[in-house]
Amino acid sequence: MKPPPPLSVYHLRGAQPLEYSSRGVRERALACVAFDNSVAQAELAAIPLVQVNTAVLGSDEAPLELWCAEGKVSSGEFESGQYRYNNELLFGHVTLAESDFIAVKSESAESIPPLQQATNSAFRAIFNLLDQLGYPHMLRIWNYFPAINVESYELERYRQFNVGRQQAFVACGRSLTEDIPAACALGTAGGALVIYFIALRGKPLAIENPRQVSAYHYPADYGPSEPTFSRASLAQINGQEVLFISGTASIIGYRSVHIGDVLAQTKETLANIKAVVKEANKVATKNEYGLNSLSYKVYLRRPQDFEVVRNMLQEVVGSDVQATYLEADICRQDLLVEIEAIAGIPFETL
Ligand code: 3EB
């Protein structure tokens, strides 16, 4: 039998969640990520479970992602989160209730939004953990919280999140433009702030998109703090080259384009992903990536757009495109679709 790769993902389907124990998967399991509320912690034995509250589109079955490393992994717990790791990488998650953060008064006597505090606290806890355990390089981070486009404390909640995130980068002595992770930030149907991430001992390459202004250089019209993420990350993990493409949307320069037109937004998003892939290929040493070598996750603001977007993806990428569709709010009110992708990570449906 072929040895397992340093990083892999299994898609678990149906109601046999413990089948994977037979493949020696349990020992090297990093975490399970569930995109609805169908999975009980008990079913997963001791494997950390991340629950993201987004409805699945176009399928009755919840896609359950089981992330695995190679060899035996160790586990630990930190503030509101759990992690698992081996000698190359660490996979962790944090789930925080905003209600645990009251709106305290800042020096300027304005109250600090609970979401900003929760985000700040989560990112600081994560960075402290990574520094302590020696996995200083964040490769990819996924961010989910409810009501992302709602304004409170005179600021849209996505912008509150950006303030808290940036504050934590600064507080932990991290650069806001270099060695920053690929990311996404989506609005869920409700519940806590949920963050999960992969960090490495070795430094990945951060990749930008020449069609877009780097998010960390967005002008102030998009909020008091810039979003701290890169367009993609490319890493070598014990000989395996992996590519994580961040949440990508219909943005040219820094402006949203094709307002109200989900098909045109999808086409533009795929053109942006193609541009990121082209940049990745300039620095990749093992693989040559193309739109058809990626696995996709598609977030749609309006569930009724599912069929047209799926058809467009099949037309542009190929009829055998591997994609999961989720209902989520995109971080700008005027965007209807966001697409993220990974490559170089074998996945199998168990
Ligand atoms: C954009 O390009 C669209 O705040 O972490 C994409 C990926 C987006 C990540 C984040 C936001 C984030 O600005 C939104």
What does this structure look like?
The protein has a seven-stranded mixed beta sheet, with helices on one face. The protein has a six-stranded mixed beta sheet with strand order 6-7-8-13-9-12, covered by helices on one side. The mean pLDDT is about 95. Helix content is about 20%, strand content about 30%. It has helices at about 25-30, 115-135, 155-170, 260-285, 305-315, and strands at about 10, 30-35, 50, 55, 65-70, 75-80, 80-85, 90-95, 135-145, 150, 155, 180-190, 195-200, 205, 230-235, 240-250, 250, 255, 295-300, 320-325, 335-345, 345-350. Helix 4 (about 260-285) packs parallel to helix 5. It has a single domain, classed as 60s Ribosomal Protein L30, Chain: A. It is of the alpha+beta class and about 350 residues long. The protein starts with 7 loop residues before the first strand and ends with a strand. The chain has five helices and 22 strands. The structure holds 3-(2-carboxyethyl)benzoic acid (3EB).
